[in-house]
Amino acid sequence: MREEFAGEDVIVSGESFLQLDFGAQNNGEVQTRATVDEKSESQIYNFYLFVFDKSGAKVTGQYFDASSQKESKGTLETSISNCWYVHNATTNDEQTAGTVRVKTANGTGMSIYMIANLDADMVRVSEELLAHNIQNESDLKKFNVYLNQRIVNRNGYFPMTGKISGVTVNGREDESRDIEVTLINRTMSLRRIDAKVRFIFKTGNRPDENGQVIKSFEAKQWKVVNVPRTSYLLSYEDRGFADASGHDFISVGSSVPASEYSDYAKDFFDTDFVNFEEFQSGTESRFSFYMLENRQTPKKPLACFQDRSRSLKNSDGTNGACEVSYVLNGEPFTRQMRLYEYANDFSTYVVVTGRVEMELKNDKSGQVLGGDVQYIIHLGDWNSTIYNSAQGDGKDTYSGYDNFNTERNTSYTYTVTVNSVNSIRVEVESSQPGYGGGFKENQPGASGAVTVAKEEIVLCDCHYVSRTISFKLSNFFEGSRYDRQHCIIDKLTWSVKTPFGEGEPIKNGMDVTTGLDYKWVHFRLNKKNDDGTFSENRRKFVNRQWDYPLSERHSASDNKEGDGTDGLAGNHNDGIMDITQLVSYIKDQVNKYLDSPTASDFDSTDPAKAKLTFTTFVDEYYYESNPLNNEKSADL
């Protein structure tokens, strides 16, 4: 729908043409599978132009598309009709620039608005919607848009807005064309309503507070939480707000109780976990996305940087959460929201999962550390000074850490350096002037299951896997003193975590394993070399359950392999152990060693060298039925 006064090529008293240059404001170059490059983000395909007088009344509303587009600026300047011209950038070094000529009323103190790239797949805004709903400047300032889909990728069609005010249209005559044209000596800067966010994860080399340095960080998956699905069409500035936050279309006040969150939750969404999409090197991985701006006000002032992602704790020490329920487009939704002590619970943050490996130096807890970690990083913009060579994190300084804003037409790049299991450094660079820097997060925002191992940590995929592992006798004693007083073998235990449960066996004279899904990993004692040490060669799997101790010692021929060859001699049947049998066997062998080293199965009488070596068989990560009750389900 076009809103017209007199015919486009007819000028009546009190009217003239205004001519205005416009262009797309830079947003910073970031391109991944989910995002596009600078030139694609800067394309202008159509726009709606409003002119309001100084009282806010609409004097012009005109839609421009390909039908009114001229092939050059020169052609436009000889036209006596409403028209426009644009040169869309063809490289990332170019800027999109154009000119529009439109007939409007003469006047002073006028305001001009442009809304570019209507009918995008991204949001619900069209020529008809604007023409019908915008009758004055106040209507435009109150107008909001909704995402068409709950996604954080875009197709290269980016809605933009711009405004210039204090315009005088005085109808100076263009004698060469015998028309009156007012040339506006300012350029309309069009800003995308989206923000662009990019994360770069790196493996660090700065020692933590214990002097330990990370070996590797494997980024696995990421998701975005609290993505707005609606926003005002115009920016804070163009709506007349100088505040940094609190004037979004959906602004959740710091005093709103969690019991009322369902009233707001329908206008935000969480993405699903997805895999990292870019791997620049063995130590760097990346992802990126788009989102509408989100500028919520924190619940209360932060005392330090580490408060940014500090969870609100329940009385039992667990993380606070609440359930929200709502109906969207006729479909009911229920989800859990995590609660924070300082951050607004509707501020946007990312959740990243990964795997950390460290080789510990001079640590009595063990030699190898492995952690399946999860990091929560709230978005925002702040300043910091990072001392990369300093041991620990005590020398880093930060300011502006109470900023949780993600602003439109701004490109944010977060460089996250993982230094250890509980220490990451995040540096943010913004395309907004005057910002930059970084921060580190210690425990707030970092969580996961961490294992410190005396021996090694073996990672397996979802298919059948067999690996060789060893248990050193020295790890079952404190302080390298090999006597019963310093033996800690009674502390040896195990734990398991699967979709059907997690935990450790209950100690009641023997391990009680009720409710634990553990029979998917098995062990077989390795054979020995000619010198009496255990071989690293893996054994074959046999369908023979472990039987130990036997009343009589079996020979190698008694314990034949499946192919008929000799097996392993011993006071056992050379069968397959489960984890409970393995732990019981190791405990028995350590106690035998204390009685007489030669009476045990350890492969050396030197306690510093003695070990037991096993082949580990890990089943495929596949269930036909619930292993605890044998019930079958289509969800398995």
Please, what is the average pLDDT?
84
Q: Please report the number of helical segments.
A: 6
Count of domain modules: 3
Gyration radius (Cα, Å) is: 34 Å
According to CATH, the fold-level topology of the largest domain is Immunoglobulin-like
In terms of quaternary structure, what is this? Answer: single chain
Helix content: under 10%
Major sheet, described briefly?
A: 9 strands, mixed
Shape: elongated
**What fraction of residues sit in β-strands?**
35-45%
Number of strands: 35
CATH-derived architecture of the largest domain = Sandwich
Low-pLDDT residue intervals, each spanning 5 or more residues = 1-13, 28-33, 434-443, 448-454
Structural class: mainly beta
Q: What would you note in describing this structure?
A:
The chain is mainly β. The chain is built from six helices and 35 strands. Strands 1, 2, 3, 4, 5, 6, 8, 9 and 10 form a nine-stranded mixed sheet that branches. The protein starts with 14 loop residues before the first strand and ends in an 18-residue tail after the last strand. The N terminus is likely disordered.
